[in-house]
Amino acid sequence: MNSMITMGAIPGGGPAQMDLGELLATRLLVQGNSGSGKSHLLRRLLEQTARVVQQAIIDPEGDFVSLAEKFGHLVIDAADHSEAAMHAAGERMRVHRASVVLNLEGLDADQQMRWAAAFLGGMFEVPREHWYPVLVVVDEAQLFAPAVAGEVSDEARRASLGAMTNLMCRGRKRGLAGIIATQRLAKLAKNVAAEASNFLMGRTFLDIDMARAADLLGMERRQAEAFRDLARGTFVALGPALYRRPTTVRIGAVETASRSAGPVLAPFEPPSAPVHELILAPVPVHDLPPRPRRPAQTPMPDLLSQLAAHGEAQASGALNGDAHGQSDAGADDRPAEQEEDTSPQSRAEREAQMTAILRDMLADEDQGFRPAPVLYQDFLVRCRIAALGRNALDMRRFNRLLATARSGVGEDTAGSPDWQQAESLASTLPEDIQAVFLFLARAAIERQACPSDARIAQVYGTVSKGRARRLLGWLEDRNLIVLRADGVGRRVLTFIGSGWETLPGAAEG
């Protein structure tokens, strides 16, 4: 099968071709200022490969939804779905080999990062038998892999940056070929950009971006000025899937059009009526237009929903039946969660049930590596089946319960003043670190051996021992713990202030 595709032409030469087979193994970075033709280039690439390889497009502005009409892509409007649904969609699109456009238009920056991270995570975590080749195109990649922290939450930035790093660093073995496009190289995380082996560099004006583009292409700094002179739709190409030396290419025409075409200059006609009356006229309240709202989407029923409904129906029947086994026609029909007994004993029983459900979930090793929002959705379904109501816990309380469950604390330690102090300290930390902090605190309070890097990584939800060591370093930098070695090189962990201390333990265990 011929894997060469035509991207356009070389000015004064023949056609500009790209080796798709090589691209799938080496990844691509596209850079150019706004108006340089990046989106046009991506559209040309997607159209040329749409009938050859599966595609997934992370589209923050809804520019690529027009591919669906001609090439049959499934368009997912992320604003209509939950974060957990995005993770499931990422898995299912690989299982069923469907090309997808993830339209993130309508979400704020924080949600765009978390929804995109969940979708990429689902694609990444699919079982090995579904590792078919997929072109993963991420437009405006600097939004999802920023070089520095911005106005979004740390949790969203870490999740998105981690997903983008996985795509570019570890995606090749899973069949994921990352194609990232950015307006500014300086705003894109270096560890994400550095993993690309193919480059298409368009028009840019800032010195720092021209210098980085020249470095990536192996050009001298004095040659970087040439990027200012590139015409719209013209790029300098380099890489194993393109050319062995920097080569100027002109991108060819496309078959589909973007929804967000640029502004068109038209004759200016001033208003005929007085401007003051047109703009500052009083507006009656009843004439104010209502805010547009997206229609609620009815979810498709699935097996888990049917099981949950069946469990609630049984629980409702048990509650409404009288002592003689007769049903009362005038009984209150409120949902079970509204009939909840709020006595202290009842609350304790409910919390014990929820803790048991969560520990049963975490007993499955694979569950420990799934994102908290995905675990939360699974937890809610299990609570409904157990007749604990539809909204047993909100997300914040669930994260706190999850951190406690991952710490492995027992009932005896959980009731001690030391543990109450540990929980109070943990509540001041980022949510994703609380479980590790409590796990270490339990080991110190119970005078156990210092946990190994592998065990700390497992509690954090990863297999990376390096990440576990960075977590310990982060806690040390904030004067929460101190690590020291005993006489034979084993590690001892001490909590500053409280004096809790573990027994010596091997870091590699």
TrEMBL record:
SUPFAM superfamilies with a match to the protein in the record: P-loop containing nucleoside triphosphate hydrolases
Superkingdom assignment: Bacteria
Alphabetized InterPro entries for the sequence: ATPase_Atu1862_pred, HerA-like, HerA_central, P-loop_NTPase
Keyword ATP-binding in annotation: yes
Region (Disordered): 317-349
Keywords: ATP-binding, Nucleotide-binding
Coiled-coil parts of chain: none
Pfam families hit by this protein: DUF87
Keyword set includes Metal-binding: no
GO molecular function: ATP binding
Chain ranges of the Helicase HerA central domain: 15-78
Stated name of the protein: ATP-binding protein
Organism: Acetobacter garciniae
